[in-house]
Amino acid sequence: MPLLEVKNLSVRYDKAQILNGVSLAVDDGEFVGLVGPNGAGKSTLLRAISGLVRFEERMKRGTAGDIVLEGEVRLAGERIDPLPAHEIRMRGLVHCPERRRPFRELSVLENLLAGAFLSSNKAETKRRLERALALFPRLAERRSQVAGTLSGGEQQMLATARSLMFDARLLAIDEPSLGLAPKIREELFAAIRKIHDGGVPVLLVEQEVGQVFKMADRNYVLSQGRIIGEGSGASLMANETLRAGYLGL
Questions:
Q1: What are the tens digits of pLDDT across the range 164-184?
Q2: What is the structure's pLDDT at 60?
Q3: Model confidence at 59, in pLDDT bands (50, 70, 90)?
Q4: How many helices (H) and strands (E) does the chain have?
Q5: What's the rounded mean pLDDT across residues 20-29?
Q6: What are the C-alpha distances in Å from 97 to residues 120, 134, 158?
Q7: Averaged pLDDT of the chain
Q8: What percent of the chain has pLDDT over 90?
Q9: Which one, of 219, 216, 131, 222, lies nearest residue 168 by Cα?
Q10: pTM of the full structure
Q11: Which residues, at least 6 apart from 153, have a Cβ–Cβ distance to it below 8 Å?
């Protein structure tokens, strides 16, 4: 049984079909990459998996805009797509969204502790905090600094570290390297590798296709809301149609 199983997932915003029958899986212990051109629906897929699309649907109910979500999402065999986002998070599916989004007026430390607000175990929270600061030494140096004054790379590190402050059975990360300098990207990808090596399965959405293919056990290629390729980085690179038309390589 896969840890995460997505079956025939479709999302429509008003008349725009964003996802169309997407199916994918992540096994326990696996590192899976999700790549594809801009506008393919990658971020929408993560939002649908983590319950945010369903939240938007409920918020807009009764207004002019329609959001339709169909299909199934299962975590460790349990169907989670009908659940609200916070219940999905409680079950261990962690979504680290694009554009970082820290609590800008709070300190680095306060942001990290906010990630543990669902936990009542103080000893476990302390242990996770120590692990997060060890994983990202820059954050340890800036633990008292206001998050809104951090660089873009440091804010991404903070967003990733905050995601690990409560039990994570699967970490889904959306475009972590977006807009970052090469050196910061390398540090961030190294930290993500350590997270996975520490036992957390990862589903990574990323534009740096070559980097994803080096890290991931398997990959999916998404284009125009459909999965058009699946396999190892080497097998996808060997497919000239995918390589030239969809991977930008």
A1: 888 889 999 999 988 888 888
A2: 61
A3: low
A4: 11, 10
A5: 97
A6: 25, 22, 12
A7: 89
A8: 62
A9: 131
A10: 0.91
A11: 180, 181, 184, 185, 187, 188
Residue type, 97: P
Domain ranges of the chain: 4-245
What is the per-residue pLDDT for 45?
96
> b/e per residue, 163-197, with b = 16+ CB within 10 A?
bbbbbbebbbbbbbbeebeeebbebbbebbeebbe
C-alpha 200/C-alpha 146 separation (Å) is: 29
Q: What is the distance between the alpha carbons of residues 149 and 133, in angstroms, rounded to a whole number?
A: 18
Domain 4-245 has CATH 3.30.365.10: no
One DSSP character per residue, 115-137 reads TTTT---HHHHHHHHHHHHHH-H
Amino acid sitting at position 136: F
**d(Cα 54, Cα 108) in Å, to the nearest integer?**
30
Residue scoring higher pLDDT (61 or 209) = 209
If we measure between CA atoms, which residue out of 80, 62, 63 comes closest to residue 71? 80
